[in-house]
């Protein structure tokens, strides 16, 4: 199964220490990558006064109240749960619609199958942002503006092409013998899909689920237009609003921003393999 | 893109399941009908959602773009192509031309800076050494963060008199300091810098994945033949990475055409409205959504769509074709 998502095989050989130059370069690259993030996190432990005096300094003394204020007083938790709800529903929707369509494209032979596949891949040829204005008008006329569904359904639609492109070869690679065996045992095509195909394709499903979740979690333009109602807003909107409304409170913005980063960083450290593997799978197509 | 035939099996394959074995023994016509019910039942929801929310809006955009329209009721003030080419059309607005230029800068900058940079880092992190996994994880962090967070973060760092300036001062480079986010000649390059910081990790993930597909045997054989590390990379790894690089170029180009989030939050509306940092997408939302010029905004949407679609088709036709063919043969395994 060439579509199996694998990371580079772990070498059995013990890893060597490399030359100092390798480490110097690697440290430099890693430093540039995370220094701004560290700056933001540390900045949240300083007061705005400290930051004004020495913008690039370390916390002295460490101040915990800014983080505590954000966690207790602001809209942070509301936005976090909105983001979670929207991302989880988007993921569920993408999985349900995507795996059914990919199953049809992978395991049925019918006239127009390649045409249908090409139809879905059209979505990869232009940026989703291009249709955002008419999409907003459509959602408004369907009374989906300022609803969770108004963000969830379009996000499912945006995510379908890449999901199908990743899942189809994976489902196609499951040997036909399994399907025949299921047929002999009396399972129809749908029974085979439900009882055998779905459990077997769990790695690929996890991959597309993670990609859908991350895309929804980071999404900004669609929620910006659709969710005008503050109680529905997601974390990216919250970060923008907080920084606009508290522009004098630099420490507060830093604390809010770093708290907003945390879920993504934690999620990534657990799901790194799926994210990286998923992008790899997408490219191998 | 890929073949989907399952290997031919002794029992006749998926298309012709032995009818005798089926309980109930449906007739051939009944089975065909049932197959079509299943195909339609399983794929219709996806087709419906995709068509309604991805493709249909583009159709509406073309229609709306021919009108002057406040967004309520059906558009009635037909203006033909005035929103595109008229005296107040997009192509006559110098600010929109600035947006086109800025998108061009971002595309060129993404391809010319992120690509080589990511390739170098990928070669570095593809070496086997202790601690490599940790370095890889750290280097991917910018890519994982939401664009908005990245935009706010860099805005705070780059504001006048903020961390970036104070670091430059302490390095004795104080005379370089300028209004990173306010100097109209500089701000687009600041945006490009932020985007490079954010998206190099994406190129890196793809390149490292591509490198992991280069069989160890090949590089080991080269090493046995006396090739140095650099010669191996130059003549084996990088050429074998060709298709990954071309696919990355494609994704990067489409991404650069729709850049919105980082610029929306990191550069102020005033700077944007002067054309110093705007892109087609921010221009579209500024005029269509914020100013409620729906017809005009949709015309910009159509321009963005046409440019992206043409770029994608040309790229597919001339650059990606080999890779798609390659994917087809590769899948036989």
Give an overview in words.
The complex is a heterodimer of chains A (about 280) and B (about 325). Chain A has about 280 residues and is an all-alpha fold. Chain A has two domains: about 20-65, no CATH class; about 75-285, MetI-like fold (Orthogonal Bundle), CATH 1.10.3720.10. Chain A has helices at about 20-45, 50-55, 65-75, 75-105, 115-120, 130-140, 150-170, 175-185, 190-200, 200-220, 220-225, 235-245, 250-285. In chain A, helix 1 packs across helix 13 (about 250-285). The two termini of chain A are about 10 Å apart. The model of chain A is unreliable at about 1-10 (pLDDT under 50). Chain B is mainly α and about 325 residues long. Chain B is built from 14 helices and two strands, in the order H-E-E-H-H-H-H-H-H-H-H-H-H-H-H-H. Chain B has helices at about 30-65, 80-85, 95-125, 130-145, 145-160, 165-170, 185-210, 215-225, 230-240, 240-255, 260-265, 270-275, 280-290, 295-330, and strands at about 65-70, 75-80. In chain B, strand 1 and strand 2 (about 75-80) form a beta hairpin.
Features:
heterodimer, A: 285 residues, mainly alpha, MetI-like fold, 2 domains, 13 helices, B: 333 residues, two-stranded antiparallel sheet, 14 helices, 68% helix, flat, disordered N terminus, disordered C terminus
The percentage helix of chain B is 55-70%
Morphology of chain A: globular
| SSE string of chain A, helices as H and strands as E | HHHHHHHHHHHHH
Tally of alpha and pi helices of chain B: 14
CATH homologous superfamily placement of chain B: MetI-like
Radius of gyration of chain B: 26 Å
Strand sequence of the main sheet of chain B, in spatial order?
Answer: 1-2
Unreliable sequence segments of chain A: 1-12
- Quaternary arrangement of the chains shown? heterodimer
User: Which CATH class of the largest domain in chain A is shown?
Assistant: Mainly Alpha
Number of domains of chain A: 2
Strand content of chain B: under 5%
The total of helices of chain A stands at 13
Total beta-strand segments of chain A: 0
Return residue spans of chain B where pLDDT drops below 50 for at least 5 consecutive residues.
1-20, 326-333
